[in-house]
Amino acid sequence: MWTRRAVARLVLPLGAWLACGGRERARPLRLAATSSVHDSGLLAVLGPAFSAAHGRPLEVLAVGSRRAIDLLATGRADVALTHSPVEEAQALASGRIGGRTPVMRNAYVLVGPVEYAGIVAGAADMRGALRAVAGSGRRFVSRGDDSGTYQRELQLWAAAGIPGESAFILPFQGSMAEALRQAAREHAFTLSDRATFLARRGDLGLAILFQGGSDLDNVHAVLEPAPERGGDIEGARAFAEFLRSPAGRRLIGGFGVDTLGEPLFTPVQ
């Protein structure tokens, strides 16, 4: 049962419903989506557009990627939107899910208090930046959950040769937006997807301190249920096809331009 406060019903606009002949509205498509696409505001744009195009509202649960995969695999979601490529590949290989369609990308960034910029200023790559963080005596807020961001964080710490359970790393259970607020309170570093940070930075007093490099690439994919497990395969494919369509790509590529002066996501080719 979807009882978390993160559940949001993206209802088909009245005009689109009338365009469908005023017939009874279809059952909502249950989407388990990574919190970053929810916290950045992108789903608030994509959801109504998909509903208008297909006559079907979205019911969204914002969770970590691992949780989203589990909800899809156990029939509690019809479709998932995640950003954890390793776990997605494992779920596909094991038959827990039936398909994976990359739809967009952005990047991870290392953020922290503006005055900490000098700590990582000489880093040539993310490994060097994280080693500088570890040697600085400053704290780092970790998602510490089942999110794709946390999985990438663990990979980055391992690549830097730093134990993920080090004392300066503060585990935090919450969404990306909540983790950013915690980093501001703790006066600490954290890893964020660029979209959520730019959309939520407000008065946090945090800045992007390191960015760039293929190890910070952040690919989002739509996952569909495995045929033998039941589920709404048709609805999942319709959602993936919408995001890959010219209309979906325009919405993804244009998101953030009017408000922040730059796109927050890039549709995949």
Give a description of the structure.
It comes from Nannocystis bainbridge. Residues 31-245 form the PBP domain. InterPro entries: ABC-Tungstate_binding (IPR052738), PBP_domain (IPR024370). It is a single chain. The protein has two domains: 8-105 and 220-267, Periplasmic binding protein-like II (D-Maltodextrin-Binding Protein, domain 2, 3-Layer(aba) Sandwich), CATH 3.40.190.10; 107-216, D-Maltodextrin-Binding Protein, domain 2, CATH 3.40.190. 42% of the residues lie in helices and 23% in strands. Strands 1, 2, 3, 4, 5, 6, 7, 8, 9, 10 and 11 form an eleven-stranded mixed sheet that branches. The two termini are 36 Å apart. Strand 6, helix 8 and strand 7 (169-171) form a beta-alpha-beta unit. Mean pLDDT is 90; it is low at 1-24. Helix 3 crosses helix 11 (233-244), helix 7 packs across helix 8 and helix 11 packs across helix 12. It has helices at residues 14-19, 35-39, 42-54, 65-73, 85-94, 117-120, 126-136, 148-160, 176-186, 194-200, 233-244, 246-254, 257-260, and strands at residues 8-10, 29-34, 58-63, 79-82, 97-113, 140-142, 169-171, 189-193, 206-210, 217-225, 266-267. With 269 residues, it is α/β, with parallel strands linked by helices.
